[in-house]
Automatic annotation (TrEMBL):
The keyword Chaperone applies. Residues 32-51 are annotated as: Disordered. This is Tubulin-specific chaperone D. Keywords: Chaperone. One of its GO terms (biological process) is post-chaperonin tubulin folding pathway. Residues 943-1108 form the Tubulin-folding cofactor D C-terminal domain. Residues 32-49 have a biased composition (Basic and acidic residues). PANTHER family: BETA-TUBULIN COFACTOR D (PTHR12658), TUBULIN-SPECIFIC CHAPERONE D (PTHR12658:SF0). One of its GO terms (molecular function) is beta-tubulin binding. Gene3D superfamilies: Leucine-rich Repeat Variant. InterPro entries: ARM-like, ARM-type_fold, ARM_TBCD_2nd, TBCD, TBCD_C. Residues 292-527 form the Tubulin-folding cofactor D ARM repeats domain.
Length: 1276
């Protein structure tokens, strides 16, 4: 389909393409290197060059760059190879293969251009000098091997080049000595290539067509080709694999000859050719070979054209001048009666009556081929029908038009999209050639209108996009075929249909095709038919604007509606698209309806729109058995009602209020995709509430009950939609009743029992996970006056949600991350909507502890991964919101906030002046409220800031992003943040170009709680090996530690080392309660990896120097570290092989670092490594032995090592001789390890043998356990 597509090739693609061409053709160094050493281009380099050329040629249109590159490559090939072939007589012998690879290099790139742009465009740039003819022919026949070898691209390009050279009109004998021999050789070479299955067959057909259609070539070559086709088609049913390809090549060559040859000559062979291909037209077995059938259709069409006399029929419609400037002034052509009578009496138009059956058979075959399942065959048949009809009398041509148009009115062909597509193509071609007369326009435009809407659903998909695309092509062709005086009567309706297709079609290629047809109609029919609106339409519906379906539906719809197409768009959406089979189209149609209704400002017109939409959509929404119509009608009603903003029609309100109850009574929520209907029903209830639809109290509670049912659904999307609807419904209806005379009234018990108490009871019981999640969402969606009815209600709500937000809480016997997240979100929403006076100190501290100490430390895992990150993100957001609500500084710009802060400050000053005992109280708790019911102090701010800084250095990108957004908000809203200025300078100071990991490492200098929090996050990120950020954090941490170690004052290094030792000791301790088990397990591997990296980099060398001086001190850092690592590397502490190997790596790094400066610690670490060789796991033993051997080799090259050269060599030899991964008795390894102890002078008392782990009899798992959990979660 022709479109106004722009050139999408980028500048980088163009630069790479030209660079490849220049490197091949003009790089003298490369050429000299090839001449000296022979061309040896690697396969990777060739593929890279081919990819570069293919990428540019595919994304770019036919440009001068491609033409220039083609000329350069051909010139390079002819200059460097063809001339050489004429000078070297041995190479010119066809018996010797041509081995020079320069030509292959150029042909590889030329083939990529051909495959992207088509050979017809490429051959226009091929040089056609007569002097190259003999050289190209000799090169072609002397190629080594068959065309199926790696040099098939060279064979393909040489055939094309030879075909271009044979287009020279000079006599063959004047070009070469023996023209007949040369032609015979070319025919033989092409005939052999016609048997190939690859692209060489196409090039051979082109070459043989240019050869046999020359005036100086005998016709007997063509006769031989026809006989060859007859024999090949007769033998096609045999088992010979090469027969189908040979038949395809022969028919393709003959079709190319009939396209290019002289008609007088071709008529002599018409009977023979038709008889040769007749079996393909009659026998069904030939139709299974699609490519062969395609070439046969082409050949039959050209046969029919060849036997008909070319003429300009007087009855055909001709538009006349095709200049756009003359469109408004040219006269309309009409067929006169005399022309019509002449056309009716005219004969078929063949020069010989014996060709009449050929024409009749060709027309019948082509009409049947328009319904073929192959697109190429339908396209060739459509063009052939139009060209044959242009040479027939008017009566016969009109019969063809009738036959084509009958497809659109035949009920039996409605489900045959192939027939519709082929008929549209034929209709367009008939219009372009003038066979479709103006009197047939009404019938043709009716068929076009139906084809633009053609879509037949097949299961979960639909067919018909190709039909709609072809219908747009018909509209495009009609715009070029008829002037405004002919098409003007039908133009408004045609433009409206094309416009609706351009905006609302599902497929992007159909929208763009309709846009091209619209632009063609507007441009061709003149400005008189459209005025200034035509220019606006072409600018709005551009190629790029129609590329996005969302943009077309949501942005383009209001624009075209303001141009006068509002009614057409509204009717299209309301009648056709709201029940579309595709869910995405139904959703976009509803949004588009909202955009249409939203631009209407007349209140009476809005009421009329509501009535029209309700009359059409309400019955579909409540009673349709088709899910698509039911879901689409609910969505459309919801968006229309939301766009109304206010609605006071009591009759329609009563009708609309029964839609959802009717759905439930009919049980239309059930079945496949019933969740979509539930979401749409929730959206519809929210829309009714948002436009203040007048509903009585029982109806309000009935709708609330429907939302409660959906809030316990198993799908998160349904629960979220229900919670949103509960929020809107409660705010719109319950809030209005409760607010009178400027104050909130106390809600009645019935309302509380249906909302707050009901949700609290479900959350407490936790019968199923889905019910608990939905009730938490609904609690967070309730208005403030329901939650804060009294102090006890608010306390119960907080306590219940805090319990459910606890990271160890169980729902239905299992941990549920979604329930914890829902409880945290509900707490955040409640904190945001209630007044700050309700946040007394006791409540606020509980919330702070739940957010910071509980949620921010939720590191829960399941099969989905780190689900605890959901709770951590929600906890951080809720904590910052809490700090914002209870801090009066958050809105200093508002007048009301200033009026509350000034009395607060005056009260503080009065208290300080009156009673000196209150000074400490005020300083510890700054920014008191007026009633002094709560204060936010430095401790809370520091804890929250530490949590944010820790998560700012976490390994998850989402957590880091949220923390980076929340930290400036905390500094702005929360008071008394210790070291606030230092943190802001290190993290957010302007002029710093360093990345986030480096900035965070500089914050380690803050010491105290900040140091511990940031280091915990850095360890988690730096110890990760599954992301790029992990390497960045690890590099930044090592670089910071190395920088601090080089300073004269090693206090920072000692502090960092002490922190690592403390964290390592915490991992090894089983009684530590500071980190949870989940957090400890999560930090195990990253901590050991970071410690290994720091020790190997030498960042912790000062602690080994200190340890060498005070090795008798049991509290020395080096000794504490080796003791902790010894515990972590032992089997008794952990049975995880990865953790043991990570501890061994740290011990090995420790051994190398302390080998010279701290021999006592090195000796201790070596003893621990030998102890680890007693591991009962073969994999662990093999890994430890391998790494220990490598480390001993390194130590043997170190001066002043604590172990001599001889023991090290003996230990290395013994480690190599033993197969440590063998499954043998542990006593064998005990003897070997004791020998190593003797060699390395380690006391045997430090080494203890380890027994194999006891086998644990795990209970057999019930295969229905996972299914039972699914049932419990779903609530059945």
């Amino acid at each position: 389909m022709l479109t106004n597509a722009p050139d999408s090739a980028s500048t980088a693609d163009k630069s790479g393409f030209l660079q490849v061409v220049n490197r091949i053709c003009f790089d003298e160094k490369d050429q000299n290197k090839n001449q000296k050493h022979g061309f040896r281009e690697s396969e990777n380099e060739r593929e890279q060059n081919a990819h570069t050329v293919r990428k540019y040629c595919t994304t770019s249109t036919v440009s001068p760059d491609i033409t220039h590159a083609t000329e350069c490559l051909i010139t390079f090939a002819s200059t460097h190879d063809i001339a050489v072939r004429l000078l070297r007589s041995p190479i010119c012998s066809p018996q010797l293969g041509f081995q020079d690879r320069k030509l292959d290099r150029a042909c590889d790139m030329l083939y990529e251009i051909c495959s992207a742009q088509g050979y017809k465009n490429m051959v226009k740039s091929v040089p056609h000098a007569v002097r190259d003819l003999h050289a190209v022919y000799v090169t072609l026949i002397s190629l080594d091997g068959s065309p199926q070898t790696k040099r098939w691209r060279t064979h393909y390009l040489l055939l094309l080049w030879l075909g271009v050279l044979l287009l020279n009109p000079f006599d063959m004998n004047s070009l070469v000595d023996d023209g007949t021999t040369l032609v015979a050789g070319i025919v033989q070479c092409c005939t052999e290539a016609l048997n190939e299955p690859g692209p060489s067959r196409q090039a051979a057909a082109f070459c043989i067509s240019t050869t046999l259609t020359r005036q100086d070539v005998s016709i007997h070559f063509m006769v031989d080709l026809v006989h060859q086709i007859s024999s090949l088609l007769a033998d096609l049913g045999s088992l010979e694999s090469q027969a189908p390809f040979a038949a395809m090549g022969a028919v393709q060559a003959l079709a190319a000859i009939y396209k290019r040859g002289d008609r007088t000559l071709l008529q002599k062979l018409a009977d023979r050719v038709f008889e040769a291909v007749r079996p393909c037209l009659l026998d069904a077995k030939y139709g299974t070979i699609r490519i062969l059938k395609h070439f046969v259709i082409k050949l039959v069409a050209r046969l029919g054209i060849a036997v008909l006399k070319p003429r300009n029929a007087s009855w055909c419609y001709t538009r006349g001048k095709r200049t756009l400037m003359m469109d408004g002034f040219e006269s309309c052509y009409e067929v006169s009666d005399a022309d019509e009578e002449t056309g009716q009496r005219a004969s078929v138009g063949v020069e010989d009556e014996r060709f009449k059956h050929i024409v009749e058979s060709a027309v019948g075959v082509l009409l049947q081929a328009t319904c073929d399942s192959e697109t190429k065959i339908r396209w060739s048949a459509a063009k052939g029908i139009a060209r044959i009809a242009s040479r027939l009398p008017r009566g016969l041509a009109d019969d063809i038009v009738k036959n084509i148009l009958s497809i659109f009115t035949d009920p039996g062909s409605h489900h045959n999209d192939n027939a519709w597509h082929g008929s549209c193509l034929a209709l367009a071609e008939l219009g372009r050639l003038g066979i479709l007369l103006p009197k047939r326009l009404p019938e043709s435009l009716s068929a076009l209108e139906v084809a633009l809407r053609y879509e037949v659903r097949h299961g979960s998909r639909s067919v018909g996009a190709n039909v709609r695309d072809a219908a747009c092509y018909v509209a495009w062709a009609f715009a070029r075929a008829y002037p405004p005086c002919v098409l003007g009567l039908y133009l408004p309706a045609l433009i409206e249909k094309i416009l609706m297709t351009a905006v609302f079609d599902r497929e992007v290629h159909v929208r763009r095709a309709a846009g091209a047809a619209l632009q063609e109609n507007i441009g061709r029919q003149g400005i008189q038919a459209f005025g200034s609106i035509g220019i606006k339409l072409t600018q709005t519906l551009s190629f790029s604007a129609l590329g996005s379906c969302e943009r077309a539906y949501i942005e383009m719809t209001p624009v075209i509606a303001k141009m006068g197409y509002w009614e057409a768009a509204f009717a299209k959406l309301l009648r056709e698209l709201v029940g579309h089979w595709d869910t995405r189209i139904r959703i976009l149609s509803a949004k588009s309806l909202y955009a249409l209704v939203n631009i209407v400002n007349d209140r009476s017109l809005l009421q009329d729109i509501a009535r029209r939409a309700s009359l059409v959509l309400a019955p579909l929404a409540s009673g349709s058995r088709d899910l698509a119509f039911r879901h689409g009608a609910l969505l459309a009603l919801a968006h229309v009602m939301r766009a109304l903003r206010t609605f006071d029609d009591n009759y329609l309100s009563a009708q609309l209020s029964t839609v959802v109850p009717s759905l439930e009574s009919s049980r239309l929520y059930r079945g496949r995709d019933g969740d979509l209907v539930r979401i749409a029903a929730c959206s519809f209830i929210a829309a009714l509430a948002s436009c203040s639809c007048p509903l009585n109290a029982p109806t309000q509670l009935r709708l609330l009950g429907s939302l409660d049912d959906s809030s316990g659904h198993a799908l998160e999307t349904v629960r979220a939609a229900a919670a949103t609807a509960v929020r809107v419904l409660s705010m719109s209806y319950f809030g209005v009743v409760a607010y009178t005379n400027g104050a909130f009234n106390e809600p009645d018990e019935v309302l509380l029992s249906q909302t707050v108490f009901k949700y609290l009871d479900i959350v407490r019981k936790g019968t199923t996970a889905s019910l608990a999640r939905g009730s938490c969402n609904c609690l967070g969606a309730l208005p403030a006056w329901l939650v804060v009815r009294d102090k006890s209600t608010l306390d119960v709500v907080f306590e219940t949600l805090i319990v459910r937000a606890w990271r160890f809480n169980m729902v239905a016997g299992e941990k549920d991350a979604e329930t914890r997240r829902g409880a945290l979100v509900a707490l955040k929403e409640i904190v945001t909507i209630i007044d700050s006076r309700h946040l007394i100190r006791k409540r606020a501290l509980k919330l702070h502890a739940s957010f910071v100490h509980n949620a921010a430390r939720d590191f829960g895992l399941d099969k989905r991964g780190d689900v605890g990150s959901w709770c951590r993100i929600c906890g951080l957001k809720a904590a910052v919101s809490l700090a914002s609500v209870i801090n009066p500084q958050c809105n200093l710009t508002s007048t009301s906030c200033k009026s509350r802060i000034v009395p607060c400050l005056l009260t503080r000053a009065a208290r300080i002046t009156a009673d000196c005992g209150c000074v400490n109280f005020v300083l510890a708790r700054p920014f008191l409220h007026v009633d002094s019911i709560f204060s936010w102090g430095a401790r809370e701010s520091q804890e929250l800031c530490c949590s944010l800084l820790r998560h700012l250095s976490e390994k998850l990108d989402t957590v880091r992003k949220i923390s980076l957004q929340l930290l400036p908000m905390l500094f702005k809203r929360a008071p008394a943040v210790p070291m606030r200025n230092e943190i802001e300078v290190r993290l957010f100071a302007n002029g710093k170009s360093t990345e986030l990991p480096s900035r965070l490492c500089t914050c380690l200098q803050l010491k105290g709680a900040y140091h511990s929090a940031i280091l915990s996050g850095l360890i988690q990120s730096a110890g990760s090996r599954d992301s790029k950020m992990g390497s960045l954090f690890r590099h930044a941490l090592v670089h910071h530690a190395m920088t601090e170690a080089k300073t004269q004052d090693n206090s920072d290094t000692s502090y960092l080392a002490r922190s690592f030792v403390l964290k390592t000791r915490t991992l090894g301790s089983r009684v530590s309660k500071a980190p949870s088990v989940e957090e400890r397990s999560r930090m195990h591997l990253p901590l050991l990896r970071c410690l290994t990296a720091l020790i190997e980099a030498g960042a912790l060398n000062p602690i080994f120097q200190t340890a060498s001086r005070v090795h008798s001190d049991p509290n020395a850092l080096g000794l504490d570290l080796v003791i902790s690592l010894t515990l972590l590397a032992s089997y008794q502490h952990s049975s995880d092989v990865k953790k043991i190997c990570a501890a061994v790596d740290a011990l090995l790094a420790y051994l190398s670092a302390a080998a010279v400066s701290a021999p006592v610690l090195a000796h201790r670490s070596l003893a621990t490594l030998l102890q680890c060789l007693h591991s009962p796991y073969p994999r662990t033993r093999a890994y430890i032995a391998e790494q220990l051997y490598a480390r001993l080799v390194e130590l043997s090259m170190v001066r002043d090592c604590f172990v001599g050269m001889g023991p090290l060599s003996a230990a290395q030899e013994l480690l190599c001789d033993i197969n440590w991964g063998a499954e043998v008795n542990m006593k064998f390894f005990d003897d070997v390890i004791f020998r190593l102890c003797h060699i390395l002078m380690i006391e045997k008392g430090h080494i203890q043998s380890q027994e194999a782990p006891p086998k644990v009899n795990h209970p057999e798992c019930d295969e229905l356990e996972s299914y039972a959990y699914l049932v419990r979660v779903a609530g059945y």
